[in-house]
Every structure is written in C-alpha cells, then in structure tokens.
Amino acid sequence: MKLSRVVAIGFGSLILTGVSFAQNAISAKAGMVNYVEGTVSLDGQPVKVKIDNFPSIRNGSELRTEEGRAEVLLGPGVFMRLGENSAVRMVSNDIMNSRLEFLGGSVIVESAELEKNQSIGFTYKGASIDLLRKGVYRFDGEPAQISVYDGEARVMNDGQAQVVKRAHLLHLDGVAVAEKFDEKAGGDSTYRWARRRAEYLAVANVSAARSAEQYGFWGSNNWIWNPFFGTFTYLPMGGMYDSFWGYRFWSPQSVYMLYVPRQNYGYTGAATTASQSSTSTVNASRSASAASPSSMGASGRSAPAAAVGGRSGIGGRGR
What we know:
CATH architecture of the largest domain: Sandwich
Shape: globular
Number of strands: 25
Structural class: alpha+beta
Helix content: 10-25%
Largest sheet: 15 strands, mixed
Radius of gyration: 20 Å
Mean pLDDT: 78
Order of helices and strands: EHEEEEEEEEEEEEEEEEHEEEEHEEHEE
CATH topology of the largest domain: Jelly Rolls
Number of helices: 4
C-alpha cells in the first residue's frame, strides 16, 4: 500500500464538463503545510498557503507560529497542528519514518492511520517519543509534557522507557510516572482549534470521497484536494475513520452507500428506502459541495454547518 500519494481533484471541470479529472501530485516526503492563519514562518520567512503553493518543511527547517496557527500533513491521515507561539524542526521528512524536534509551545498530532512499517517520532531536549498507535497526542513546553488523548506512545527519557497510554500524561522534565487525566474534559484554545480543523476536514472529505468514487481516482490511503474547502483532506482506502472528536472520514466505497439508497422489500413487496438515517449527512455534504469558493477555503473562512459524526458546525478560526 502506497502512503505517498497526494491527489488533487479538479472538481470544477468535473461539474462543468463531466469529464474525468486528471491532476495528481506524488510526494514521498512528510511536512506539507496545508493551512495557516495569522503569523507563521518557515526558516524565518512568512508562510503563505495558496492553491498553487503548499510549502514543505525540509530536513533541518523550522516552522514557527507567533500569533498564528498551522496545520502540517505528515503521513496520510497524520495531521500535525501547531498552536500559537509554537515551533518544530524537521529531522527526517521520510514519509515512512518522519521525525521532528519539538521546540516549544503546543503541538497536537492526530493520527488516523499508522502503517505497520511506518514510524512517527518526536524529540524534546533529552526525551525521545514514538507514537505507537493511531490516536491524538499533545506536546507542551510549559510545563514540558506529553498528553495521550487516544492511542499509545513510548517515551525514552534519562535512559528509562515508559509507555504512555490513553488518558495519561507524562512530564518530560525528568524521571516521572504517567498521570491520568480526563481526556474528554475539553481544553484550551489550541485544543478547540485542532478539533474545529478535524471537523472542517471531515466535512470536506464527504464530497471529495464521492468524486473519487465516481471517477475511480483512488487506491490507497491519500490526501485528496477539495477546492470548495480550499484544503487537502484525508481519504481512507477502505471503510471509515471515526476521529477521537467524533467526526467521520469516508472511503470512496463507504460514501457510495450514502448516495445510493438500498431498497428493502418486505413481504408485501413494497420498496422502502433503508438509508434515511444518512439523509442529513448527504444533504449536508451536497450543500457544502454546492457552496462557492468565496465562502470557504484556505483562508479558514467557515463552511456551512453540517452534521457529521454526530457533531455540527465547522470552521477554521476562533478560540
């Protein structure tokens, strides 16, 4: 299974002409900047994300936020989100073995998929952290700690290895014991922003997965471009991914069942639609697909509210 494909779908030409789309970009590196707001710099230069310009963090490069935030794509389905006044340095942008140095602030990593031979790791001062499972992880500099909202991480610090499990945090300022915390309690502005970004990309996924299903342009876990939302979103190869926050990402096969009602025939011979429970999601995704690019996009402007995975309301900005 290839983890390196980034797919850009030409939705506009699909809708206007009905012909097959034809643009994809292959990237073997982790670290593409998908979204920024406010003041963000890469090696001291301002970062601007445009439809024809998605900067990448090269080995040795530093991404910093001041009064701003940034979302970075690592392996397919792995989102790294930097809060305000945060920084990371890329150590290895190998898509199957990505490693970064956490320099400070607050960083949240959401991993929807972690392949058998794929590794994602961070270092912070003397500590080395490896993410072992899909889940949601947070790194903080003050106080220095890792919080595992979902998943499992292995921390090597002062020659000692510890496994930090779901709903536990570990201080990184010396030998310590993992402490339990309430992973459902909500959080600060960085946590709430990361959750909103997860919701935004989940809504963008529906129409993107539908177009991929219609035109057969898929075959592995991918990042897929949705121009109506001005963002890349995650496209699972099969089944569905339900995020920690309750938002669903559909594969092309699974989204097909939303759009093609199944007919149930009872003993009376009357046909009834069996997909009524999905109606609100379908209508929401169609409404989102019909929205103009001027009302949503890479600038972070909100898309129409939609029910996805039991939640409603999306957006990029806010605290």
